[in-house]
Amino acid sequence: MKFSMNRNQFSHQISNVQRVVSTKSTIPILTGIKLDLREEGLTVTGSNVDISVQTFIDQQDADNELQIESAGAIVLPARFFNEIIKKLPDSDFTLEVLDNRQAIISSGISEFKINGLDANNYPHLPEVDGSNQLQISSAILQQLVTETVFSASTQENRPILTGLHLKISADQLLAVATDSHRLAQRQVAVKNASQNDYDLVIPAKSLAELVRCFNDTDTELTIAISENQVLFKFAQTLFYSRLLEGNYPATDRLIPDHSTTQLTFDAKALLASVERASLLSHASRNNVVKMTIKAEPAQVTLYGNSPEIGTVEENVQTQAVTGEDLEISFNPDYLKDALRAFGETKIQMEFTSALHPFTLKPEPATEDFIQLITPVRTF
């Protein structure tokens, strides 16, 4: 096996693969990166069991400057290989694998020899049936994940809640994440080639890693689904993730169907106010911010308190206040995460009582995007 290639292009092309490879694994070969060279190009694969990523570097793409002398395959230690490539002196490099599975990497005045492993021992990628496919823009999927995935649980005591619940019906994709204290729900349109209904839960960590793979260019993304795996195909990359087993809890009943108090805010302005109020609440063990709402005259006030440090009080600018007076306490970090998901837009907050979850929706209110937060009992 022997080839030469532009060094910067190679580093760029394998970056998505490199990120998923773990430096520690119960399967030692998975700490390596697999290189499979054929006459049409180079296939690079990395995996950490939960996620597998494969990228194809096309010999026909002139930007790659890929010159192939002889085909072959090898698994090289990912961390050292990546660091070596980054620090080579010239703009291109040559990699040659000897019969003893030793790889020689040369560039300019520098030459490295590193020991590889037999590529035949590298685990095969999962088989995913390509007949059940959806299509979605990478930009839309990235937005959907960004707006929901932070609400997934990070606690492994309920594994199903560490994932993002996706329900596909006709041409609509509904995404829900909850850790039982807060919930984020987003619905977008997709091209459902099979018109089948799907119900799956993808680990939140997998989706967070997936959206990091997208560059600034919006591209069409194909999603193929099998019994315990999902495959995302885009550009020259295949991204596999396992699916979580179990039944996701019914979250529809958590969203209130009516409200007694409604507020309209500028999301960015409210975020700034909550950040200030939480400066002192973070110093307290409870980490709670209180909001008082008065309809006549319209006034919304945030209170933060730390017995050791002091207190903060801020009147928040609202664009509308309707309904009943209310006093409610909540975790400010949950509200900050929700507000960041809305970006620079108007939002509507709807309350039913001091002890019931409240919701945030874009203004004008729509069921396509809902954030829900459970209040904190302070008495």
From TrEMBL:
Which InterPro entries does its entry note? DNA_clamp_sf, DNA_polIII_beta, DNA_polIII_beta_C, DNA_polIII_beta_cen, DNA_polIII_beta_N
MF (Gene Ontology): 3'-5' exonuclease activity; DNA binding; DNA-directed DNA polymerase activity
The record places domain DNA polymerase III beta sliding clamp C-terminal at 253-377
- Tell me where it resides: Cytoplasm
- Looking at the record, the residues that make up the DNA polymerase III beta sliding clamp N-terminal domain are 1-126
For this record, the Gene Ontology CC terms, alphabetical, are: cytoplasm; DNA polymerase III complex
Query: Which SMART domains does this entry report, sorted A to Z?
Result: POL3Bc (SM00480)
Which top-rank group of organisms is this from? Answer: Bacteria
DNA polymerase III beta sliding clamp central domain segment(s): 136-249
- In this record, what's one Pfam family? DNA_pol3_beta
State the UniProt keywords alphabetically: Cytoplasm, DNA replication, DNA-binding, DNA-directed DNA polymerase, Nucleotidyltransferase, Transferase
Name the GO terms of the biological process aspect. Answer: DNA strand elongation involved in DNA replication
Q: Which family does it belong to?
A: Belongs to the beta sliding clamp family.
On subunit structure and binding partners, the annotation says:
Forms a ring-shaped head-to-tail homodimer around DNA.
| PANTHER family for the chain | BETA SLIDING CLAMP, DNA POLYMERASE III SUBUNIT BETA
Function (record text): Confers DNA tethering and processivity to DNA polymerases and other proteins. Acts as a clamp, forming a ring around DNA (a reaction catalyzed by the clamp-loading complex) which diffuses in an ATP-independent manner freely and bidirectionally along dsDNA. Initially characterized for its ability to contact the catalytic subunit of DNA polymerase III (Pol III), a complex, multichain enzyme responsible for most of the replicative synthesis in bacteria; Pol III exhibits 3'-5' exonuclease proofreading activity.
Stated name of the protein = Beta sliding clamp
Organism listed in the record: Bombilactobacillus apium
What lineage is on file?
Bacteria, Bacillati, Bacillota, Bacilli, Lactobacillales
| Gene transcribed to yield this protein | dnaN
